[in-house]
Task: structure prediction
Amino acid sequence: MNASGIPLKEPSVSAAAADAEQVERALIDASTRVPVLMFYASAMAWLIIGTLLAGFVSFKLHTPDLFSDISFLTWGRVRPAHMNVMVYGWASMAGIGTAIWLMARLCRTVLRYPLLLVAGAGFWNLGVLLGVGGILLGDSTGYQWLEFPHYAAIILFVAYTLIASWAVLMFRFRRGEQIYITQWYLLGAFLWFPWLYAAGQLMLFVVPVQGVLQSAVGWWYANNLLFLWFGAIGLGTAYYMIPKVIGRPVYSYHLATIGFWTYALFSSWTGMQRLVDGPFPAWMVTASIAATILTIIPVATVGLNHHMTMQGYFPLLRYSPTLRFTVFGAISYTVFSVVGVLISLRSVARYVNFTQASIAYSHLGLYAFFTMVIFGSMYYIVPRLVGREWRYASLIKLHFWASVYGIGLMTLMLLAGGFLQGENMENPSLAFSETTETVLPYLRGRSLAGILLTASHFIFAYHFGLMLFGLGRTSTVPTFLNPVEAEGPETHL
Amino acid sequence: MKGLAPLFLGIFGTFAFSWVGLTLIPNWQIGHLDPQMEEDGSDAYPQPQSGMVERGRRVYAANGCIYCHSQQVRADYAGADIERKWGDRRSAPRDYIFERPVFLGKMRMGQDLSNIGARAPKEEENAPASPAGAASPATSPAPQGGAAAPPASSAAPSGANPSPPTKAGSPLPGAPPPKATTSSPPGGSPPAAAGSPTAASASSAPPATGAAPAGSPGQQPAAAPPSSPAPPGANQNPSPTNAGSPAQNPSPAAAAPPAKSTSAPSASPAPSMPASPGPNAPRASPSPAAAANASPAAGAPWPVQTSGEPPMYSAAWQHRHLYSPRSINVDSNMPSYRFLYQTRRITDAPSDDALKLTGSEAPPEGWEIVPTYDAKCLVAYLMSLNQSHPLKEVRSAAPAAPAQSPAAPSASPAPPK
Result:
């Protein structure tokens, strides 16, 4: 994929030429076009692959005899393949795409060194491809969230180094003294991830730690990936998109500062609560539970900040696709954190440890929060890259509602099923097989939710494909979800 | 926020804090544990595993067993793991010092496996080289022997645990326990061997309480297959084939799996037999009093499924379970791992490794289903999972009964209730 390979229309610089700032923005957008679209297109491909794998995993969990003769379709291989495709293929690549665009916009400079990013995207895809292939062929390392075999991990790390060095370089060319909130989060994400990934790889594979500590390092990695990588990108994006779309500044800069630093401090200490009651010194688990509870502070400040920013502008949710997805994601962030606090408490963890509830938690974080925010940002960014508007408002609406009902149903099913499963597991007078049987109806419900999500992803991929091939609407007015009745819409919508 | 410096410093500082706090300090605290030994350096636990077991660990990792099976027993105050007889004490960091990767697990769609090797019948340890190979000959004659001895079923209820100890009371069953005792030390699998002699001696300790009922029927299975490896197997098999199958088959879905200890005191002790004799001795058998008084506790320590011919948790049983989980437990949710097995034409004589399958599972005439090397390694790995050895830093579930042999460090009986 290169600049001339795709019949893209140049962003319509002249249409908005009235305003010098508009021109500048359009130029910046144009400069990010190839790398960002490359990341987005790859991410969309991985999203579809990951969705198909997820459907297979979900159905096979309650229909265990499906394809049991074929080694690479066994449940224990497809499940990590699905997870890694979603985490490293879809979420990371889409997140990086959004982060690149935000970075260029907020540094107010055209994108320099695009080759770094193009090479980064290429290596990243190669890494994920090799990694997923390796897992399916039986090369998994056996560490959750780090299943990629070492050859894939190295390539991924190279790709990441290229991208992160680009991000740091961009900072040198930024204009203006002020560093916006979003940039804190993005810079944090770009610096935390390599340290995190390198530390995880080193402590598990190069100089492996002893025994149970591998598990501690594994969950430390997984939780920090969730919070400091995906969480930081997601929150940074929300901090940009919400004020941008409604056209007013963030409610409180001060609150945002508190939110950022408490987030960095507390959420990085979570992770061990997943090892509750395991063979570890109690202080490790307790420290993480305390840190999880303390994440209420950043959640409250960020939530309050977003809410106060939106105050009075909630009716805009009716029109703007970006706002609708982003606000849903921001609300889910609060729900995700509250659920995280609840299931980390020892009295509750006793029941939900080892059950489907932990899957619900991961999906709340990675899907209901992060993915929805990224969907929102893609609805905002893609038209500015291809110079077309989204073609069908109806498809956007379908995408939104299928995603919302899908992820809502999935979370409810897994949480409820997980609690019942845990309750039965704690009752030794019930045979163990009854605990799994208890949860099976909920897993079927989860499969139903999976169908909804699959539909939503295919709709979005189709719509994205139309945009990519220049089949969007040519219009100066963005696509609204509903016709705007009153006076002219917000210009930034 | 102005300037990059404070931002950079903060970003690095917060993360370094977490990195040091959650990985480096724990590594300093519990990252360099040594095996526990007696003062003279004997009885080291845990011990490094054989190459076959290590390869089995790779197979376990490659096929994602960890996504459904945990390998950690929680303390009695934190969960029902010990009541579920998944172990007689909580897991401790020292249990895992040689494990790489470590499979603590986060999900229990399947049972906890930390002690699955400890549940295996004792004679399995005769077979260091090829568990599968040794197991099938041992077990295959046994079912017939057991089946030919209907009264054996009556032995099961009370005899579940006491049957090994009956060597004092009855001449013929006297054979099995020595067998178990002598068979375990060979040390095919080191960690198991460490615990097993004690297991045998512990199990022989609980004396006469249950011996009388167990003694008489116990003779018959033993009498039927006099060959050396068979008796222990025979001892275990009668109950599933006789008492077990008629009782459970009518409603396998409902009745069979719940045959766990407490659900059906009258019926469940019968199927308990296959599981218990050797391996459970350390934790289940030392409760002869419980066997007499509280029948639930005397019941099957592990959920016993429908009539499987190989003794539960033996290597042959593991192979069959991997190949066809639902032939053993109709409610099982486990995928089958047929790709680890090979269907091949019988050339000269049927292989010793071949799976004993019946009904629609059975291969066509002239063909047999044998485990691949990976499957054998995986089973060797499963059989090596054993945390029954006591650790000084961990309290076992209940104080050892004073009546137990003091020489038996692993005699940490299960709580009666």
Notes: Residues 42-208+229-237+262-403 of chain B form one domain.
